[in-house]
């Protein structure tokens, strides 16, 4: 496979219209940008949406959807838009008792007034946690890329960080360092039995702490205080404990699963800790043996007492690579796993959001018979082209940071990214840049999928930039990198 396109990928032959497709995508992207308070501040969720239906919110600026938008704008050095976006989100940070410190899921300007959604208008009325955790990450990446350290250490930014840290690092009835959230609290925004400590939220918490520490250290260099020192100490300890916890309880390989299967159960007392969550061997699914192969590894979706969620979630695992939660050898184990399970995860429209999907009675019981999440659709095994740039970026970043590590594997992964890029380039324009795709191979446009979805368009442009325009720009996503 390393020598070129595989037989499986012949249907994805390079298009001679690459420049035209990229140009049209850029034109679509420019149309997504809207103004807030008279300045460009972000993108609507989708270009085509019924503007006469007030119940639909695809014309609002979503913090989650604007993550790739802001990354792309930073690559283009359009710093003023990113700063305006971050500032508006900061101004809208909640100060009410129940949601104090939460950033808005989305916002829009109506009659010269900002209207924010903190979950009170969402389906299920759940506050999205990922929006709040993404804000410090985007802020730190902006400060690094732009060199705007004045913004990073400003009183407004530092106060926003403290409000957020007070929210996520407060004492609770849970003795572990994870952040507990309800179902529907992140990108998986429909019931999918992901309540508890879902992987994506915990990885974002790790990166949010990492970014917050960097931003607080900016302030510390100019003006230190006892309170700031204490917050830094607590944040560093929490980040360390969280990473150790995730690597211990979420990371699985064929070897760790063999150990887990033979651990004793029903343990009690201070000295017995081999099976802390009392996981019975019967809950380990049959498909896991072939899925892991011999050298593959991944972070499972959730760890709850007696009920680990062994489903593979693409975004959480990709972010764990990008943000450095996984070690370099673990990242390569993840790459091998994706390579081994390519037909499931990439198929004809890269890439699947989670695997395997829930079906039958399990789907009925755990999703509440959710018609949008029927098997192989939406968040229940659907294919989301917007996810490819996260995984592709993790491969390209790994290649930059570890240029001499397992060069055969990395050549194979680079080829995989290229093939997936071409498959999207050839398909997405014809399928009107749809939000998601249905079916085991991701061939059909999703039944309720919006067309000209912003993060589908921008995700493609990001991967094009990292592959064709300036490969070294992927280092911008490396949270340890110094100021440019």
From TrEMBL:
Domain of life (superkingdom): Bacteria
Enzyme Commission designation: 3.2.1.26
Catalysed reactions, semicolon-separated: Hydrolysis of terminal non-reducing beta-D-fructofuranoside residues in beta-D-fructofuranosides
GO molecular function: beta-fructofuranosidase activity; endo-alpha-N-acetylgalactosaminidase activity
UniProt GO BP: carbohydrate metabolic process
Keyword terms of this UniProt record: Carbohydrate metabolism, Glycosidase, Hydrolase
Record bears the keyword Hydrolase: yes
Family according to the record: Belongs to the glycosyl hydrolase 100 family.
Protein name according to UniProt: beta-fructofuranosidase
